[in-house]
Amino acid sequence: MRAANYVEETTTSIAGTSGDGAITLTAISNVPRFSTVFGTQATQVRYIIEDTVNKKFEMGIGVVSANVLTRTTPQITWTGAVYSDNAPSAIQFGSSPTAGDIRIRMSATAESQGIVMGGINRSILSDANWSEYSPSGHWAGDTSLSNATMVAGREYYVAYKLECAGRLQGIRFSVGTAQASSNIKMALLSVAKTGFPGQKIVDFNTVATTSTGIKTDSTTGTWTPAGPIWLPAGWYYIGFICSHAIALGGKDIGNSIKMQTPLGLRDGYGVGSTCYATGSYASGIPAAPTLASSPGIESTGGANNFPFFGLKVSP
Asked: Which are the contacts of 113, defined by CB distance < 8 A and separation ≥ 6?
């Protein structure tokens, strides 16, 4: 899920019965809009809709795509008389409101005001020492990595917990077994309300995996969209797909600290395992991955292995 400051729009067109559906967004002069910050690709956000005339209010989770907000999960509503936070229905704001009467924005919500741990994912020595940029608490310059063999053309998703907000400026991983002419495509994704990978945030550059060792991508100007990219603290997924069957450095979860993920503990998820789905290297990581209710879990040598990906995130 993405977040940003001072994003606000209005509307003159709302679909559905009396305006309880998708909202066509209209820019407000001199105010950044959703597409200004996130681009036009589908992006999961927490929205606030306010009727400034009739004093109605709705907060929830939705998807913004090409200047249209689809309200997928209304969470809190105020009808002008009734306050509801128990699975409320979408508010009817009218199908053709006057420009300026309805305001759609991103703003801090009560549940978002938790404690954010400082000092993690921040550089204290130098940019060269990537061991300071910890992927979910596992990467610590560990030289005893277990190689996890990746199947060519398969979409993999590994959870990543960002402990403090900052600018995403790079990604790092280790190749244990290389292949001639091999490459890897990577992307960062939000977490959907199901706990599975949600909307794609950024495509990193394609990186050659023709030799072993540490690989990095910090050429932010050629990312899609171009970085650096501001990220709030929270959970994300790193998606990747390999052109050939290479091995990436990681850890056997049976012999290391186990990490809970947004997937909980169902069927072995939630302890650092990497889930996967059928994919296509040519297509790369999709904008909105489709995973089965019980996707596969990467398993090598009888034990679950998960590769390490470090993100470089700085204030």
From this structure: none
